[in-house]
Design goal:
The chain is mainly β and 118 residues long. The protein is built from no helices and eleven strands. Strands 2, 4, 5, 6, 9, 10 and 11 form a seven-stranded mixed β-sheet that branches. It has a four-stranded antiparallel β-sheet with strand order 1-3-8-7, with no helix packed on it. The mean pLDDT is 96.
Length: 118
């Protein structure tokens, strides 16, 4: 089991910045990839950014050049962060942290709301 706790969401004006954090605990040694997804009402959850094996990073086209994902490994914990700059109203969503372990099993955090006002 992997437990994920997100923090850092909030309300920001367009053009501003926010940093999201996700603390992973439990069987963190089994994690093979971590990422951030977001979801708005009535829409499917979409991938924002992911760090995979070999620290290969993937970004959604809509956030390239504005968002940066990073991961910090500690002994019994992993911290995943998402630095979001030049935020736009269309970035408004609930952001979820995901951890993928062997067998393709995904664990999810509870989500954190990001609201960007115009």
């Amino acid at each position: 089991q992997v437990q994920l706790v997100e923090s850092g969401g909030g309300l920001v004006q367009a053009g501003g910045s926010l940093r999201l954090s996700c603390a992973a605990s439990g069987r963190v040694f089994s994690i093979i990839a971590m990422g951030w997804h977001r979801q708005t009402p009535g829409k499917e959850r979409e991938l924002v950014a992911r760090i995979g094996s070999g620290d290969m990073v993937t970004y959604a086209d809509s956030v390239k050049g504005r968002f940066a994902i990073s991961k910090d490994n500690a002994k019994n914990e992993v911290i995943l962060q998402l630095q979001m700059n030049s935020l736009k109203p269309e970035d408004t969503a609930v952001y979820y942290c995901e951890a993928i372990v062997g067998g393709g099993v995904s664990y999810w955090g509870q989500g954190t709301q990001v609201t960007v006002s115009s």
